[in-house]
Design brief:
- It is a single chain.
- By secondary structure, this protein is mostly helical.
- It has one domain.
- It has five helices and two strands; from the N terminus they run E-H-H-H-H-H-E.
- It has a two-stranded antiparallel sheet with strand order 1-2.
- Helix 1 crosses helix 2 and helix 3 packs antiparallel against helix 4.
- The C terminus is likely disordered.
- This is VKGC carboxylase.
- It comes from Malurus cyaneus samueli.
């Protein structure tokens, strides 16, 4: 074992895919807010197709909106063509995570009442844990042909254009 690293491992983070997922999530949330009436500002004409309305004449369809609509159609088609067992599995999975989140958020609230509010970082971690729905196991983002690299938990991750560097000692 030497004091100098003998190899380096670089982790690549596809920031384009991360940004696309953020945009699609924002569109999904915007559509839900418009549908349930909590969105106060009017929807711009180029975003009206997310509500099922036809695109306005003369306004080109945004590529992100187009991809969002294709994904939604694919999801609806998948749900329509699934078997009864698959539908039941999805139903019980949704109910399990809904109940899990409700129970954990209730416990967090009761603990906060009894012991006081924790630091904002810890509270954010607890809410993120309570809101976790298991998507990482079910649908992995496309990696562009690259295999995922297993990394030890002691390595800090960064979601930026910079490469994360890990030292290997031999």
């Amino acid at each position: 074992v030497s004091a100098k690293p003998s190899c380096y491992m670089y982790l690549y983070v596809n920031t384009t895919a991360l940004e696309l997922e953020r945009n699609l999530t924002r569109l999904r949330e915007l559509r839900e807010r418009v549908r349930n009436g909590s969105e106060q500002s009017p929807l711009p004409p180029e975003l009206r197709p997310i509500l099922g309305e036809p695109p306005p004449a003369g306004v080109p369809l945004d590529p992100v909106v187009s991809l969002f609509l294709r994904r939604e159609q694919r999801e609806q088609r998948r749900e329509r063509e699934s078997s009864l067992a698959q539908r039941l599995r999805r139903f019980f999975r949704r109910k399990f995570f809904l109940f899990r989140r409700s129970a954990l958020m209730t416990l967090i609230a009761l603990r906060n009442l009894a012991l006081g509010r924790p630091s904002p970082e810890r509270l954010a971690q607890e809410v993120a844990f309570a809101s976790w729905r298991g998507e990482e196991e079910e649908a992995r983002p496309e990696t562009g042909g690259a295999a995922p690299v297993p990394v030890s938990p002691s390595v800090s991750h960064t979601h930026s254009r910079q490469l994360c560097l890990t030292h290997c000692f031999y």
